[in-house]
## 1
Amino acid sequence: MAFWLLKTEPTAFCYDDLVRLGRDSWDGVRNWAALGHMAGMRPGDLCLFYHTGQERQAVGVCRVVSEPYPEPGQEDARIRLVDVVPAYRFPCPVTLAAIKADPTFADWVLVRQSRLSIMPVPEALWQRIHAMAGA
């Protein structure tokens, strides 16, 4: 099992939307580095659900439930998506400011390359975020 971070603008799609739907496709990714990460996702992997924009915080966790597959309507087969389901909401969201303030995260991609929409989360950082969230 691997750990990932998925970013979304909460005004477009938020964690509550995923809970309401029960399952949805994580689509619309066009950055080649992020698509490369998505290609590595497998069913059972867990993902931090991160709200961008004004919130800038990890609000919960979702689970990958499909292999990556081509996004419908796209001519380029490298543009893929995965299906996800909600797993759990954090008791206390973990803000980007809190992450940046913790030296444990200094070398993490979220801190160094914050525009990337999908990124791996090393297990030690996954555990640290859960501790910060009270989960």
## 2
Amino acid sequence: MRVKPWKAFLFFLPFLIVFLLFWALPFITGVVGSMYNYRLGTNRNDFVGLQNYETILFSESRHHDNFFLGLGNTLIFVGISVIPLVIICLLLALLLDRVKDPWKKVFRTLFFMSYAVSVTAVSAIFIWMLNGPGSYINVTLSRLGIISAESPIGWLSEQPFAWLSILGATIWWTVGFNMMLFVNALNEIDTQLYEASSIDGASYPKQFRYIIMPSIIHTFWFVLLNTTIASFNLYGQSYLITRGGPGQSTSSLSLQIYRTIMENKNLSVGMAMAILMGFVVMLFCMAQYLLTQRKKDYMEVRK
């Protein structure tokens, strides 16, 4: 039975409306707004063209310094977080895949529960665990004799501990989502492949290399790309746990954009920063995509 074009369009219409309202319209508004000199609380709204971008990229202004400070800190977080977030989630999924029912459902629920917690609650938990000499972690390490009570670790006030604290909070908070993606991919693998390889004497590492990884490779690249984008959008953990400190060493680009708009009242420069941030993320996504395609072509040649 052939579906009429207008009926097919009705199914597509909800997505089109959501896309226009929550992506296309804000994006166009941001691009246009970044070409004006608009400050919150004033009536100034002069057209300045690309001057805001020039100020951010090439001038010696505070906006230039704040943008590249935030970008550098964000790249640090992307560099230290993406690989652990992907590998830890994959390892947990592989372990969970070998657990028998009904325990598999129990552990799957427990791991995913953290993802349902808000970033505010996650930050409150980690502040309680890490903030100050009397924090739970410092007291525990002191009782175990690992550190002295007179020399506690400044988890939120010293580097590299501040980054490790944000990384730990992020892993605990988001591990359930990526793990579930891998678990669903592993569930799609035909169990007869495992049985046949076991009969041929294949060990688990060989099963992982020749059966598991080729079967979940598309999910792996999706998780890698999605995790990279999420790490670029670091905001809540940095703002709530360390307040961007010590100094401004954990002040992410999203946090700098927030401060430019809400504290400095400069909406147009903040919009320009957001557009530039989106451009940087797009470049990283394109690079990952090209690397993915090269890897897939290499695997096809080997076959």
